[in-house]
């Protein structure tokens, strides 16, 4: 909002002194709230969590910024970078981004696809403060936002015992939020706090993420973060408290400024966490934006009920996905000239115990995708934008992919026909075996995708076929175990002729 007749610097100075706030035109909070923070109920937990949301903070610009607080958290904490969805699942916009962070589920569950918030389903998938208020009402919960939509639409603030809500004059109100949150941390006893800053996004829009002004905005916001961290450490009771600090963002920005689309720079997000049980210096490849809320729950000793339907997991928890063991052997592009040479993200060598049968596979084509490959989200989705590869949100780290569309982008003969074969798993004494995995499957034409099971190395039989799109879902296939069987192996058999693709990740096999 405009501030006629008053310079930004003057307003900031006045704000720091706790005066002149009425002049900032606070949209939804009475001016009286600004000078002194609200009074919270006294906290009850020695486990405490501060979540700081920085809007539109492109993580690959932090290195170049004067950002000692963020860099300290990176050195002493776990820093997981990943990519967002894109349309048609949801735009890389703040509504979907903060909804994903707050609820711990992807847009196909929380329902927010853009900044209209149309379709929001916070009743079924509430934000983590609302959930905490339900399951542990004795916690003292605080929220501060200056993108007021996060309050008016119920994304973040429901459940908070006290909240600060300002309009989106971020240059002023980010500082106000810092002042007042600092006081809350110093003088009161909150248990869980969500604090939002918006100026990085504003500067990104106005000047681009490649600008010095964007770096300067990161530095300012880092200074706010540093003040909150200092206020935590200065608490008289700090020695007996166990604090976790999380920093995250809702989307990236293009170099020229802007987001909402499917460019890799718009899709960049991160989760940064420091606290008890969270490894220092870790850079996991299996962290995604849905992991913020589950990390908050874990740090408070709360085990989410399966009925909550969370998509995330705590940042300190690693997947046991065998495909992720391929991380160190990933290579750069061969034929995919649209992918920058420095992006190491694919291999056609399966993990130990797995194999790929390509004896019916055609020849030539794009070598990255000649038969089942193993790739990262960034590498695979950069092969071609806006063909729904961005929707592979329930894959983490390295996943398996069969893509007849990309394979056919270079001279080839024959058809795409490839089979991914799992190791043999023991099933002795079990009555049924269940194959679990996540998948993104896009159907076209005569393309086929089938799962086969083989007991004791016998002839594989089809146990599941796909004939329609499956847009990022968890799948389970349960098969009876024949009498006397001692092992089962599964096969993922895909055929296509310049059709679409099939991804498989997070394979689990359990017996009952
Ligand atoms: Zn924005």
From TrEMBL:
<dbReference type="InterPro" id="IPR006311">
    <property type="entry name" value="TAT_signal"/>
</dbReference>
<dbReference type="InterPro" id="IPR017850">
    <property type="entry name" value="Alkaline_phosphatase_core_sf"/>
</dbReference>
<dbReference type="InterPro" id="IPR002591">
    <property type="entry name" value="Phosphodiest/P_Trfase"/>
</dbReference>
<protein>
    <submittedName>
        <fullName>Alkaline phosphatase family protein</fullName>
    </submittedName>
</protein>
<keyword id="KW-0732">Signal</keyword>
<feature type="signal peptide">
    <location>
        <begin position="1"/>
        <end position="34"/>
    </location>
</feature>
<dbReference type="Pfam" id="PF01663">
    <property type="entry name" value="Phosphodiest"/>
</dbReference>
